[in-house]
Amino acid sequence: MSKKATVHRYIHLDEVDPLRDAAHDRDLRYDSLGRRIRDEVLIVLAIDLGLRAAELRGLKESMFRLNAEEVQIPGHVQKDYPNEDISPGSVTMRLDPYNHFGTVRLLKSYFNSEWHRERGSDYVFPSRQSDQMTTESMRNIVEDLAVHADTTVHRSDGESADPSELHPQALRHSLSNYMLGDPDTRLVDLRNRLRHRSISTTERVYEHFQRR
């Protein structure tokens, strides 16, 4: 019996702006501009860089070279390769290569915000209680924004999905879906963006996207 394919959730890029708008809705949760920008940054970096929640949590402002429009992510921040003795090395990633999100401008505004400076932390995503948000908090924020924006979430098996099913990993899948739909994007480009150990991993994980 063949192994059942994993079902991925994802959104189309036209759903990203409503999510970003939801982060600034005063009725949602926060009345702090800085925290609203932080939540918007969470959405943008998750889908722009294709990072997992634990990797997003480990990001530091000092890793970003905004004038060069890039971020250097050390190996210890990245997820270890499963069943491998080798660990990921440091990787430099271009910010917003498809010019969809205005990532650099958003980060400059966020890093210069009074709220972020008052935190006194180098981490990109601090909370009120700690230098770093928990991955659970990140998942909750993405879910809250998706529900508030009534986001259309898709499933790779074609079944319907609820907005509450959106999470940081689904934003990673959303980037993959977009890149595989771009005729100028090679599979190796997706592999490099997602930082898979090998291209065979990319082929296996996203076989269902390629078949569409």
TrEMBL record:
Signal peptide: none
Gene Ontology molecular function terms on file: DNA binding
Domain of life: Archaea
GO biological process, one term: DNA recombination
Keywords in alphabetical order: DNA recombination
Gene3D superfamilies: Intergrase catalytic core
Transmembrane segments: none
Domain (Tyr recombinase): residue spans on this chain: 6-212
InterPro entries the record matches: DNA_brk_join_enz, Integrase-like_cat_sf, Integrase_catalytic
UniProt-listed Pfam families: Phage_integrase
Protein name per UniProt: Integrase family protein
Organism field: Haloferax elongans ATCC BAA-1513
